[in-house]
Amino acid sequence: MKVSYNELQGHCRKAFIGMGFEEGDAADAADMIAWMQCYELKGLDALKRGLDFLLTEDPEQSPSILYEDADLAVLDGHAQSVLRSSSLALELGFAKARARGLSVIKIRHCHNRQLIMGYLARLATRGMNITAFWRNAHEPLLEQVVGFRANSAIPEIRAYAVKDVPEENEPNDGVTLVMANHVDLLPSLNSDYDVELIARHDESELLACRRRVLLDGIEVDEALWSRLKHLADRLLVETSDTSRSSAGANTSDND
Prior knowledge:
Elements: E1 2-3, H1 5-18, H2 23-38, H3 43-56, E2 64-68, E3 72-81, H4 82-85, H5 87-100, E4 102-111, H6 116-124, E5 129-136, E6 141-148, E7 156-162, E8 175-180, E9 195-201, H7 203-216, E10 218-219, H8 222-249
Parallel strand pairs: 3-4
Antiparallel strand pairs: 1-10, 2-3, 4-8, 5-6, 5-8, 6-7, 7-9
């Protein structure tokens, strides 16, 4: 089935609220999913893979700072989705880069890292050059690099399969972000190890995707759409219960 951008954003926002997200966080998360779908970057596929994890997360658990100085911050995402754990961390990095020219933010122990791209697009349009790097713990080892030019919401994306894995390699379930006011940080391949470029998306290609999707509509898996609707119905039930409770509090049997 196909839906419009606004339909997808609104549907996801209600579903995230049903999952326990605060109103503002739910709107942000929904924007991230819809943004990725506009560029055919499979945001809904990433959401589908992480949905069961999202439903078991503690909505009260916030990321904690493990280390911080003027240029660097390391945070623990407590195994939460980046939809819950990244927004404040990114704003922290943005503020540091504005003040110091460049900043590095590391969010450890997080998942759904693909979905962080939508948040980065927002910061890039505020005049920040950004590069994000993360690894997937699969065979073969995959590394993904995403770069945004300042004042552009369209990324350049590279994904590599590392065939010759360094002996010192360790599991990495985090994401590293570098932000700079005036330095172009777009990704390029430069490695002494045997790597294979398995995906490449340039700005011009992604812009063409966006134009096509906004014209033709966004393709959505019907089963996932139904599941999101079920989650959104939680919000309607809670709202109805609250309304009945409020109404009952103001009624009386006395004529």
